[in-house]
Amino acid sequence: MKGINKMKNQKMLMAEVSLLYYKKGYTQQEIAEVLNLTRQTVSKLLTTAINEGVVEIKIHNPVLENVDLQKKLQNKFNIHSVICSVSSNNDELRKLATIEQAIEYLSPILQKGNLKIAISWGRSVQSFIKYMPSITTSRNTVFPLFGATEHEQQCFVPNELVREFAKKLDARAQYAWFPYQPENEQDFFLFQRTAYYKSMQEYWNSFDLAITGIGNNTAFRLLNPMFSVNGEIKKAVGDVATHFFDENGEWIETSEKTLRISAKHLKSTGKKIAIAYGNDKVDAIIGAIKAGFVDTLITDEYTARELFTAKN
After folding, report:
1. Is the pTM of this model over 0.90?
2. With bands split at pLDDT 50, 70 and 90, how would you rate the model's confidence at 228?
3. Which of 63, 168, 170, 221 is the most buried (most CB within 10 A)?
4. What contacts 24+ positions apart, CB below 8 Å, involve 100-105?
């Protein structure tokens, strides 16, 4: 009985020492002074506590945890893949980690060559192009998903983004030599009959890969008056390549007189890779997935966890 009690008391002492060390943050010397032990005894008790299972040390590998989270999101939203970066809660670091993940994922695909690559616009796409290193590719063609704009922010100038990205890939750039929204109906039909537009339409109807961002419902306010206003726009939670949608993924047309890829072809033609991050993008990401505008989502772990817990 004495032996059993001694063993029990020893484990109780291990538990006390471990609690002070691991939970309370005491140093071994401070524990020795509190419990009237030698520092060597405290060290030995901590080691024995681990060996005998009084203390269990569990290491959480963020990379492995993210792999599990990616699979859960793929199943939840029934999409091809989710690529989730390991990042901090700092917004700038989250952005850089997500962009770096996008570069790592897309570089081998782009290097295969012979691809028709469509790109949209926005800060995520601009950052991806900015940080993308120059790589050697063959027979790739880069083009925008809609006509030219005159917006003062470079991230909303599709032809400029195409130029920069094509240069990084040593690819052919196919520009939209027509406006996104002609001034009047007559000009709209005139541009539709041009060789430039018909050539771009062929690319839109046969693209291999589309790299897009996902705008949230602030995009409409930021880019207005580019879009023709109607009452339905108030229901929008986001857009992909200027195609707006509500929380259920239903498309919301802002104007019939815009020169851009159709929502139907964007959904059904090639592989669609969306880069999006931030808690303010959660509703927009879900809407974009439901609308059929996303095959692969590249995001960060914090946004991914919000997506997983969100009702869809």
Report:
1. no
2. low
3. 168
4. 100/131, 101/298, 101/300, 102/128, 102/273, 102/275, 102/298, 103/128, 103/131, 103/132, 103/133, 105/273, 105/296, 105/298
